[in-house]
Amino acid sequence: MKVSLPEVNFSDWGDVRYLHLGTEWVQGSMKLDAPFDIELEYVQRMMAWLLFVDPASVAKRHAMQLGLGAASLTKFCRKQLRMRTTAIELNPQVVAACRGWFKLPADDAKLQIVVADAATEIRQPQWLGTVDALQVDLYDHEAAAPVLDSEDFYADCRGLLTEDGCMTVNLFGRSSSYERSLAKIVSVFGEEAVWAFKPTREGNTVVLAQREASQPKRPVLADRAQTIQTRWSLPAPKWLRVFKPVA
């Protein structure tokens, strides 16, 4: 069955460029004078997995994004963190837009953009158990609810992760949709392995799930947060004030 994909365009407002998929809803953004930084607060929070790993090990890890958006996470992981990075995106127009308008580099030994349906692609054997940081941001052009949001989907996501791997998911708002999504994630990963942020002003709530539950001590998290802020200019110390286990 042929899938109807929305038109892809962009708008500039001041020093920020925004990605749109056929509506005025913002699907991603980029600072024109800092194209490899992460501009949106919720997208920065998708990097919270950094709190759960040794900062010295980051460049040796593999990040995967489900949904390319404006490629903020993909560019940050590849260019700033120097990680092996894979992004899976259904719409080839989004890939072309990111390459033409949002400074997404060409594929190389450490960057691969796969044009595919994420639900199918993540079941491919070559990905299983290889992903240290899985970042899931799959919304339709209306940005109303996650496109993939079943227990089976989250189980497939868990299967991608390495033993100390983490998944971060963007869930929009604390509506009934958020509660249902959180319950599915908890059912798959276990209550002890799931953390959640308070919603941003825009209503995005980022949830983190660990492949294997661990509860780092607060001083360890604080120390890593300071390193993350110093090394990569992400507001990680602020995260710790609005981020906690759901258990």
From TrEMBL:
Question: Taxonomic classification, please?
Answer: Bacteria, Pseudomonadati, Pseudomonadota, Betaproteobacteria, Burkholderiales
Q: Which PROSITE patterns does this UniProt record tie to the protein? A: PABS_2
Q: What is this protein called?
A: Spermidine synthase
Source domain of life is: Bacteria
Show where the PABS domain sits: 1-215
Identify the species of origin.
Variovorax ureilyticus
The entry assigns this protein to a family as follows: Belongs to the spermidine/spermine synthase family.
The record, for PANTHER family, names: THERMOSPERMINE SYNTHASE ACAULIS5 (PTHR43317)
> What SUPFAM superfamilies does its record include?
S-adenosyl-L-methionine-dependent methyltransferases
- Which residues act catalytically here? D137
InterPro entries the UniProt entry points to? PABS (IPR030374), SAM-dependent_MTases_sf (IPR029063)
Query: Which keywords label this protein?
Result: Polyamine biosynthesis, Transferase
